Amino acid sequence: MDAKRLTERSDADLDISLLRRTVRGDVVVPGDVAYDQARKVWNGMIDRHPAAVVYCAGADDVVAAVKFARSRTLLVAVRAGGHNIGGAAVCDDGIVIDLSRMKQIEVDPIKRIARAQAGLNLGEFDAATQAHGLATTMGVNADTGIAGLTLGGGFGKLGRKHGLSCDNLVSADLVTADGRVLRASATEHPDLFWGIRGGGGNFGIVTTFEYQLFPVGPVLLAGSILYPYDRARDAMRFYHGFARTAPDALSLDAALATTPTGERVFGISACYVGAIEEGERILRPLRAFGAPIQDQIAPRSYLDIQSAGDAMFPRGRRYYWKAQFLRELPDAAIDTLLAAYATAPAESLLVLQQVGGAIARVPVDATPYANRDALYDCFPVAIWDDPAEDMMRTRWARETWDAMRAFSTGGVYANNLGDEGMERTEAAYGENYARLLALKNKYDPTNFFRLNQNIKPAPQGRRHAGSAAGTAPRGQRATSNAASG
Ligand SMILES: Cc1cc2nc3c(=O)[nH]c(=O)nc-3n(C[C@H](O)[C@H](O)[C@H](O)COP(=O)(O)OP(=O)(O)OC[C@H]3O[C@@H](n4cnc5c(N)ncnc54)[C@H](O)[C@@H]3O)c2cc1C
Q1: How far apart are CA 368 and CA 415, in angstroms?
Q2: pLDDT digit string (tens) for 261-277?
Q3: Cβ-contact 156, 167 below 8 angstroms
Q4: Ligand 1 contact via 326 beta carbon (within 6 Å)
Q5: By the 8 A CB rule, do 202 and 422 touch?
Q6: Is the separation of the CB atoms in 484 and 86 below 8 Å?
Q7: How many whole angstroms separate alpha carbon 263 and alpha carbon 462?
Q8: Alpha-carbon distance 54 to 36, whole Å?
Q9: What is the value of pTM for the model shown?
């Protein structure tokens, strides 16, 4: 650790007792027994040392932490589920404002509304809403935070039928960069409400989300069907034809993967969001195609479906991915994916997460989430444990992404971005970027919230190079690493 950083940290230390007196929640600092756990995020590649982690007990703590950081020009990271692939939820030297202990949820089964605090993960949210036979779109890994997922868009098994998580947001309470508590909804601060439905953590820290819910399940027809690698090409062609004409109620994610016994396969994960008998009929052509080596499609509880992939993504392993949207999957793209997967290191995945349906019918300018015409989010996923393999693993994923670039729409899902630079952030927001920039200038002109898919305030024009407007906070040094580029 260099001398400058030590000084910065001890400066911050001087104020920690004040911070501890100001908030109700725990404050963890270097030297505390809990510190090494507190600085971890989901991706084991991320190894950063914040000056303090504030486990907020409520919105008042968030206000206090924001004001504390602001008064001392500290860099701020905001953490809910900690799943951002590039580790944006933790920083060096600055302060982590952690929401993970704010887990209250109230479900109104009559109005079909859930009021959920930002620290809930998807599994907790789904369990509370399913107790009433209700749900709204959430992602496919129970451990992901509802907050980051919703603020960047949010797709999952219900997305094609009910839209993105952010499309089902009714209101949000948030703390702005100047410490104000605002409610954003269609009628209260509607500009802000527009911005947080895809614009990520750029405008404030959301403490509570209010979602529209829908009757779902509790049992749906879902599961995976696997094809051997030597028949993957035909299966992928069939998959694309089936997926592009699928009804909204059918979600079809797919992946090139390797089984625990080391066999390479192409797998399709189907979920029909409707009556079981209807699902049996709709899925018949898929189940009749080819000679799968495994067909596990069966009636399952929605909660089991939502956590089916959890074992593949435990906290603490090393992960890298790089995503882009596709509108089509021509034969040349299939061949490119197969060639890339043939050289994939062990445990890698090549994912096609299906979007479209109701997501595509929301006007592009209705929310910041711009890539509504995409059919798949395509991303290579590298998973490993040995730091000595970092270069090799990330190189495979980056080369695969490069090879698939020719088939991409050019767009990217903000929630699958690491620290890939401003051009990629613009690619996530497309024509909505200019409006986001105006909103950023209004609500966060000093770029207080900068560890995110960052909209850099730039009054002179969107292609402002160099550091953001305002004073660079302490701790504003490299926060990226191989996991994020
Ligand atoms: C295993 C895995 C599976 C995934 N599956 C899906 C999926 O099926 N569908 C999908 O859409 N996405 C999926 N994602 C991507 C996921 O949406 C993003 O990683 C998202 O950022 C996770 O939210 P989080 O709260 O866990 O993240 P965090 O890392 O805690 O936060 C990420 C960023 O979000 C912002 N943020 C978080 N909380 C707040 C808040 N309360 N107020 C303001 N800003 C905040 C901050 O900028 C923060 O840096 C998956 C990710 C992983 C790792």
Answers
A1: 13
A2: 999 999 999 999 999 99
A3: no
A4: no
A5: no
A6: yes
A7: 48
A8: 14
A9: 0.94
pLDDT (tens digit per residue) in 76-129: 999 999 999 999 999 999 999 999 999 999 999 999 999 999 999 999 999 999
Kindly tell me the sign of the dihedral angle through the C-alpha atoms of 410, 144, 125, 37.
negative
The reported pLDDT for the residue numbered 15 is: 84
pLDDT over 90 for what percent of the chain? 90
* CA separation, residue 339 to residues 119, 241, 255 (Å): 41, 21, 14
The average pLDDT across 440-448 equals: 97
Q: 294-295 and 105-108 as β-strands: parallel, antiparallel, unpaired?
A: unpaired
Give the pair of three-digit tokens for residue 62: 């968030």
Q: Does residue 475 have its Cβ closer than 6 Å to ligand 1?
A: no
pLDDT tens sequence across 7-39 = 455 455 558 899 999 999 999 999 999 999 999
Least Cα distance to 208 among 159, 147, 156, 255 occurs for 147
Q: Report which of 307, 329, 313 is spatially closest to residue 257, judged by C-alpha positions.
A: 313
For residue 149, the CA-to-ligand 1 centroid distance in Å is: 4
Which 8-state DSSP code applies to residue 259? -
CA 306 – CA 283 distance, rounded (Å) = 19
Mutate to test the pocket of ligand 1, among 144, 192, 320, 480 (most ligand atoms within 8 A of CB): 144
Q: Are 296 and 267 in contact (CB under 8 A)?
A: no
Q: Copy the structure tokens of residue 122.
A: 């998807």
